[in-house]
Structure formats: structure tokens, C-alpha cells
Amino acid sequence: MTQVLSRRGFIKLSSTAAAVASLSSIPGTLGAMDESQKQLKGNAKFTPSICEMCTSSCTIEARVEDGKGMFIRGNPADKGRGGKVCARGSAGFNQLYDPQRLVKPIMRVGERGEGKWKEVSWDEAYTFIAKKLEEIKQKHGAHTVAFTARSGWTKTWFHNLAQAYGSNNLFGHEATCPLAYDLAMDDIFDNGISRDFAKAKYIINPSHNVFEGIVISYARQYMEAIEHGAKVISLDPRFSTMSAKATEWHPIKPGHDLPFVLGFMHTLIHENLYNKKFVEKYCEGFEELKASLAEYTPEKMATECDIPAEVIKRMAREFAKAAPKAIFDFCHRVTLTPQELELRRAIMMCNVLVGAVEQEGGYYLNKGAGFYNKFLGENDAKAPVLKKPKIPAYPKVEFPRIDRIGEKDSEFFLAKKGNGIVTLIPKATLEDIPGVPYRLHGWFIARNNPVMTQSNTEMVIKAIKAMDLVVVHDIQVSDTAWFADIVLPDTTYLERDEEFTASGGKNPSYAVGRQKVVEPIGESRPGWRVAKELAEKMGLSAYFPYKDIEDYRLQQVGDNIDLLAKLKATGMASFGVPLLLQDKKSVAEFVKKYPSAASKVNEEGTIDFPHKIKLFSPELEAVSKKGALSYEPYKYKEADELYFINGKSAVRTNGHNGNNAWLNNLCDDAAVWIHPKTAERLGIKNGDNINVYNKYSTQKGKALVTKGVREDTVFAYFGFGHISKELKRAYGKGVNSNALYSPLVSPNSGMNLHVVGVKVAKA
Amino acid sequence: MAKKYGMIHDNNLCIGCQACSVACRSENKIPESVYRLQVWVKQEEYPNGQLGYEYHRQSCVQCENTPCVSVCPTKASHVNEEGIVLVDVDLCVGCLYCVAACPYQARYVHPVTKAPDKCTFCHESRLSRGEEPACVTVCPTDALVFGDLNDPKSKINKVLSEKVTYRQKETLGTNPKMFIVPNHKGGINS
User: What are the boundaries of each domain within chain B?
Assistant: First the structure.
């Protein structure tokens, strides 16, 4: 035992993190740095912040323990999330200390994707990027450089840089994720909407797997509803955790959710189950909707979606009876059909038809400051609106965007310019798009990983290789960074301050953005700083009129120092009381708090919707003849192929966190789910190595034989089969689902499609 | 009265997300190759033909009659005054009798100390600060309830009085303080 005892003595002197062996040889990574620099300088008291392990942006707080460890939990001040985090959230510390993490800028010295790099200084990196951008501007025009910034915070910095430089091709990640439902709600409600899951009595859930693709607040609300006896219907070709918790599981045919919804709506209307009073008073376009649905009888739709007509009708009756405490969940990322926009509009219209809007247990309109203030009287205090620093006018761009948003006849007119149709970038680089008189020549990508997250990986890589310049700002050499010319090391969210944010649920709310828990490790720099410093190098500093993030935040709150103090101390703030326009009790409490709002209350004791709810879209009709609803059958696969679908796992979500040591340790390979009968027919046994293949790609995986998937379908978790060899734990393991998907960009919504035909064979 | 800590794992509320496992690793600095706590997810086909997932919390169940303590020749394995089974690394001679004796396979050999280690309800890291165990703190769906079984007003006693629970391998007479609410989907209603 002597050896053991001496080892014990040793461990008392060293930390677990420092004991992690450094195997990394990549220039610029933490593993390539001196151990002595790995010292956590941070706050031992909990600092409220926002998680960034996925994009759900849950509220957290974190503290440094003994100068070497860290504990992350949910922010207890956030009642909606109950102070909870998921596995990914808890694993954030590991991201901070990962030896494979990038902490110095690196520049490509070999071919794209060859993995040959050299370390460069930040100044060298900026000089290189500025020079290249100027060259492209001279040769092709600044508009030929696309700027993708994943979401809110990154957009603020890099979209500003893009426009100052002269490009109008700004994108977020949305077209690979929530865009279709965002567009649908804008079209129907002219406002964002949320779902009051916790109070609902009846929920129809088409593959919205919140117990695996975890959003803490949704998971808690769904569970609360289930605990209170709500009936939850899961429509999913695979038996997900949501299906297991649901009252009923119906394995719907992949890609055929829209016919289900149309048959369901047909029943609501033709059996007179809809709320006539609500529809007459608050909606427009009902007659056009009714006419467009006439042919979609449940009987006809049943054969399409593979759910019996009687079941569709029963659900419609139950749904209408449960209203207003009824939710037809409009789902999240899984994109089920090329008719994404129709699908999400149809789902939302179900809630409208039964009047389950702006009452407990249904949908409600998001009430940010601007919207909430509309209902306040003259003498009432108003919700604060965050300000933005004043910046000079951007140079005018003479060319349309690649998605032509902003042109009169753009099919994507519903999308905001800051979101854009990011899925079009490969096409706009490799092919001529009608009405777009140029091709893209550069791509600046902040905290986004299109090689992993956009459909048809081969085409994305081909496009990247055709670019004159590819810049990536990320915490690691992501699959996209692997093909970049220069990779700039981002700070992890635990080392970063961000701008304040404002949003709204039932009343306006504000959040701190992110707050630094520890000082940045190595030479990593946050987005606000990189964009500002690069702008200075390009002679564009006038567009960044703030000293640092602290100065930016001060300009956001103006003279409202109380708000600033509250956000920094607790991470969040809200204004007023919750308001549901159609709920008499809620309206009464609102008026009690804001007496001069009484003038807005109608004779029924509720408040009228500020706009008519649209059951027919004149704008979509004008652009694409799609004002009403219709079903266009789509050939997803050949007769001898199986449907291939994907979904999220609870420990690894999207393209970002699969290389995290703790998460990878829990799930390093994703098996392909296959039904026992199909497996038998193909001679495949549980655990066999298999090939999943189609005309786009061949992916190697392991078979999981289970009754939890339809006979005609195979399923795999998303976020596996990483391509960057610098993601050493995740590289090459599991099926990369996007490699198998087609490059289709759906009409009107720009969404990729996550259903495709594949063959499966024993390897 | 001294405290007697226990825990409930509710199979209906658990979603197998492993938040507990990772939080435990983070708080207790558990090396990557081993774990104090995992939730094992198993797909079941129930007699009524329905599919379901069963969630098994794989960790120390904090027995009252403790085989691991009984077999320890040096008193390194012991139960503290709050009913928590602990290992005193300095007294351990590494015989690993306790690892073999545990009917729940809850103990592992710590790769650095070479002594057995296990769930301690975060005794050393959190309880002394007045905090709940890390797993309970983070659980997204409140599937874990922790508290003092000697306090009639504690939340754990309230839940125990409202829901049907069982304990693993009760016939062994180990008297675990880890209670399980079985899955409704299996046909047992609570």
C-alpha cells in the first residue's frame, strides 16, 4: 500500500483539472499552453449569468470553488426555470478547462481542411482579415461577404461590423432551427407568441421533445401539466422521452404532420367545434381558410399521416372541449416537411380556432416593453425600453441580399434581415440564384457551425472551399473552423460579459446577458471586443462608439441605474404584472395596478387584441399564392428506402458541445434506432456495425434494435459524426445526420428538411 | 433529535437527462473514468403492450444496516451521526471488502486515492454549507427530493406520505434511505 499512500499525498497538492494530461499538439489550444497559466481567477460567490452550452439560454449562476473547481446551477431568482440546469449546463466548467479549447488565434498554413495551422498574434490576425476583406471589396464588392452570427449577442457585434464594412448579407442560425414558426407567428399574430404549458389540460405535441432537447422552463412546465393530469398526445415516429411521459403515443409517418393537422382542422370546422364568437370578433380570413380545407377530410388525411381518421376526429373533439386550456404545440427544430411554413401556420391556427389564445393554459402574445406599454394609460409608469448607442448611417448597398429579403417579391419576405436564410449560402456561393447578380466570396462566422448544423454537409464544405476568405470566431476548432483560413479564439460564456437583453412573456422582462465568472483564459477575446478591434483596424471605429462592454451597458440603460444594479446583482428584472388580454381576472389585476389602463377594457372585462388574427395571409397570397392552406405531397424517399429522421439527445445538443469531455463520456456514439422487424429483414442484430447510406453520403453507425421506432423509419440523434479532427473526442463517432439530408431550402421559410430516404446494411 | 437524511427518486418525474450525474461530477470533482451517480435508462415493454422508459438511479442508497461498514476491518467505512455512509480515506487499507459486500454496486475505487468512494449526499461539499446535494439542486424536473426523515414536517416525509414508494432489494434487510416512486406506466398507481 505504500504506493497508494504516496499517491494520496500527491493528490492533495494538485487539482483534478490540472491532472488532466495534455495530449494536444494543436497550436493555439489550451493544452499547448504552460500549465501554470491554468489558474482560475474568479468569484467564489455565485454570479448570475446565462448558459451557452446550447442556445436555450437558460438563466444560471456559477461560483469558483477553492480556486480550481466550479459549480453551476440555475438562477434561483428565475421562477420559471426553478433554479435548475441540465447536464449540458452543469458541464460548462469542463468547456472552460478543455485542453482542446482554442486560446490563441491560428492561421491556416496548409490546404483548407488539412489541419495545418500556425499561431498568430491578434494584430496579425486582424491585419490579415482586414486586408482580405478589402481585397474582396475591391474585386467583387463588400456585399459578397456573408456574415453569420449565431444569435442575439453575437449579432449585435458582428452584424454591426458587416454593415459598417458594406455587406447586407447578414444571417443568424435561425433557418436551421426556429425560423418557420417565428415567421408563422409574425404572419398570424403580428407578434411573438408563447405557450402556457403548465396550465394546459390538453396538449398535442408533434415531436417537440423537451425532455431530451431540454429547455428547462418547457421541461418543467410540461412535467407540471402532466403531474396535474393534463392529457398529452405525442405524435412522433420515434418513441422519445416525451412519448414515454405522454398519455398517448402515435407514431406518425415521418414528413406527414401537415396532413394530420389539416384533417384535424377540417374536423374542428365541419363539426362546428371551433369558437365562433372568438373567430368572428378577433380573426380575419376564416372563410378563405374554410374553403381551402374542404378537400382535406380526416379520412383522406389519415392515409397520408398513418393515424386513423377516428383518432384524428377524437383528438379534435377533445382539444376543442379542453379549450381554452388547450395547446397544439408548434414544436421546435425538427423540420418535418418542405411545407414548414404551412405546417406551423396550420398548428397555430388550431389554437386560434378554439379561442385558446391569451387565456391561461393556451397561447399568449409575448409582451415586451413596447407592446405592454400600449395597454397602459397616460398616467401609468411605462416599462423601460433598452437603448442602443447612436451609430452613423451604414454605407448603402446597391445589390439585393442572396435571399432577396427587402425586395418586394422575395418569397422570404416574412424573415427579418438579421435572421436571413442562412441555408442559402452554399447555393449562393456555387450557383447563380435568379434575381441575385453575384456569388458569395467570403464568410465570416461567429459562434456558428454550419458544416455541422446545415443540411447536406458535402455542399456546405464545397461552398466553403470555394470562398476567398473564411473567418471563424469560436471557442474550439469546430467542424467549420476546420476549413477556415483563420480561427479567432472566443471566450467561453463563463469568461464573458454581454449586453443586457429585453424580452417579454406575460409581462416585460430584462436579463443581464452574460456576466464573467472567471477572467478569460489565454488570449481568448469576446465578440464585442473582436468586432470593435477589427473595425478599428479597418478604419471603421466610428461604428463602435463605446469603450467596452460596461460602457455599452451604461448606454443601454441610460439614466436607469436601478435597472443596471438589479440586473448585475440578480441577473434579471421584470416590469409590471402578468397580463392575459382575454382573462378577466388577469385584466382586473392589471387595471388595479395601472388604473388609467381601464379605458382599454371592453364591456366583457377583457382587452381586445390590438390586431386581427390572420387565418388567411394576403401577403403570402400575393407573393406565392399561399395565403390559404394546402397540402402538396412530397416524395421523401424511394420505395425501397427507409425514412431517416433525427432528434436531440439530453446530453449532447446541436453542433457545439459534443466534444465536451463529461458529455462525450456519457454518450460518445449515437446508435441508429431500427425496428426489430426491419432489422430481421435486413439481417441486422442489436449492436451490429451498419452503414446508413443514400446518394448524398454513407455514414457508419451501430444498430439499436427497438420497437421505439416505426418499421419504415430509422432514427439517430443529431450532433454526432464530427468532421473536425481537432475535436478529438467526438471526431468521426456516430452518424452525422446532416450529411444524409438533401440541400433543399424550403419555399417561403428557407428551412432545411430533416426527413430523407436511406438504405441500411450490415457493415 | 439527530438528523437522518434520505432521498426520493421519482420515476415519473425523472427524464434520464443526466443533469444529476454531471452536477455530482462537477461538485465532487469525480475523475472522468468513474462516477458516484448515474441514471440508467432502459426501454421496457409492459404487459399491456405499452412502451416505457425505466430510470434507475445507480448510486449509494445509504443503508441503515450497512454491509459495507460491517465488513470493513479498519472502520474506514462508517455511518455518521446523520445516517450518511462515508469512507475515511486515511483509515482505509485498500482491502476492497466493502466494494464486494455492497449489494447495490455503489462503490468504486477512486483512481487517484485508490480507496473506495461513493455518493455521500454531498456531505463534504454541500451539506455543511446548508445546501442540498448537487443532484437535487440541479434536477430539471424535481424528480429528486432530499431531506430529514426524522423531521415530520420535512418535504421528504410529505412526499413519502402521498406517494407509493419502494426500496431496492428490501428483502436483504439493508433498510436503504433511498426511496423510489415507481413508474405509473408500469401499472402501479401511486
Answer: 5-184
10-residue mean pLDDT series, chain A (763 residues):
35 37 65 64 89 92 84 93 94 90 96 95 98 98 97 92 98 93 97 97 96 95 97 97 96 96 98 98 98 98 98 98 98 84 97 98 97 91 95 97 96 96 98 97 97 96 98 97 98 95 96 93 95 98 97 95 95 96 98 94 96 97 96 97 95 88 91 97 97 98 97 96 96 96 96 96 96
CB contact at 8 A, A271 and A309 = no
How far is the alpha carbon of A17 from chain B, nearest alpha carbon, in Å? 9
Nearest C-alpha in B relative to A707: B51
pTM (2 decimals)?
Answer: 0.94
Pairing of strands A248-250, A231-235: parallel
Architecture of domain A42-102+121-192+400-573: 3-Layer(aba) Sandwich (3.40)
Min CA distance, A227 vs chain B (Å)? Answer: 8
User: Cβ A84–B19 below 8 Å, yes or no?
Assistant: yes
ipTM for the assembly:
0.95
Q: Which of A7, A15, A61, A86 to mutate to test the interface with B (most CBs of B within 10 A)?
A: A86
Report CB contact under 8 Å: A212, B15: yes
Grid cell, residue A235, equals 405524435
Chain B partners of A211 at a C-beta cutoff of 8 Å?
15, 17, 141
Closest CA to B52 of B190, B189, B184: B184
Q: Cβ B113–A11 below 8 Å, yes or no? A: yes
CB contact under 8 A, A7 and B16: no
Chain B residues lying within 8 Å of A657, measured CB to CB: none
Range(s) for CATH 3.40.50.740 in chain A? 42-102+121-192+400-573
Query: CA A331, CA A335: separation in Å to the nearest integer?
Result: 9
A537: cell is 483596424
Show which of residues 86-105 on chain B sit within 8 Å of chain A, judged by CB atoms: 89, 93-94
Domain with CATH 3.40.228.10 in chain A: 195-364
Fold of A195-364: Dimethylsulfoxide Reductase; domain 2 (3.40.228)
How near does any CA of chain B get to the CA of A260, in Å? 23
DSSP secondary structure letter of residue B59: S
Q: What are the beta bridge partners of residue A69?
A: A65
Out of B25, B89, B140, the one facing A86 most closely (by C-beta) is: B140
Give start-end residues of each CATH 2.40.40.20 domain in chain A.
642-762
Interchain contact B148–A (C-beta under 8 A): no
Cell numbers placing A288: 378563405
Strand-pairing partners, residue B78, are B86
List the one residue out of A4, A161, A57, A6 whose CA is nearest residue A531.
A161
Q: Which of B16, B31, B45 sits opposite A241 (nearest CB)?
A: B16
- The alpha-carbon radius of gyration of chain B (Å, integer) is 17
CA distances (Å), origin B21, targets A90, A285, A341:
9, 52, 39
B5-184 CATH fold: Alpha-Beta Plaits (3.30.70)
d(CA A645, CA A758): 10
CB contact under 8 A, A223 and B13: yes
The three grid cell numbers given for residue A495, joined into one nine-digit string:
469568461
Q: Which residues of A touch B23 (CB under 8 A)?
A: 71, 73, 85, 87, 90
User: How many CB atoms sit inside 10 A of residue B87's CB?
Assistant: 22
Which B-chain residues 66-85 have CB contacts (< 8 A) with chain A?
none
- The whole-angstrom separation of Cα A289 and Cα A266 is 10
Instruction: List CB contacts of A219: < 8 A, sequence separation 6 or more.
Output: A210, A211, B15, B140, B141
Element (H, E) at A364: strand A363-365
Give the number of A-B residue pairs with CB atoms closer than 8 Å.
127
CATH topology for the A642-762 domain: Barwin-like endoglucanases (2.40.40)
